[in-house]
Amino acid sequence: MEYNTFLESIRAALAAKITGDCQITVRTIPKNNGRMMDGISIQCPGEPMAPTIYLNSYYEQYQNGKSIEDIISDIIKLLESNPNPVCIRPELFSQFSFVKDKIMFKVIHAASNELLLKDLPHIPILDLAVVFYLCLDRNAEGQMTALIHKEHQQMWSVTEQELMNLAKVNTPDAFPAEIKSMAHVLKEIAVEHLGDQYDEALMDLLLHEEDHPMPLYVLTNQTGLNGACCMLYPDILEQFAVQVNKSLIILPSSIHEVLITPDLLENAYDDFGEMVTFINQREVSPEDQLSNQVYRYNIDNRQLEIVTRSNALVGLFSTDCRQEQ
Question: What does pTM read for this prediction?
Answer without folding.
Answer: 0.79
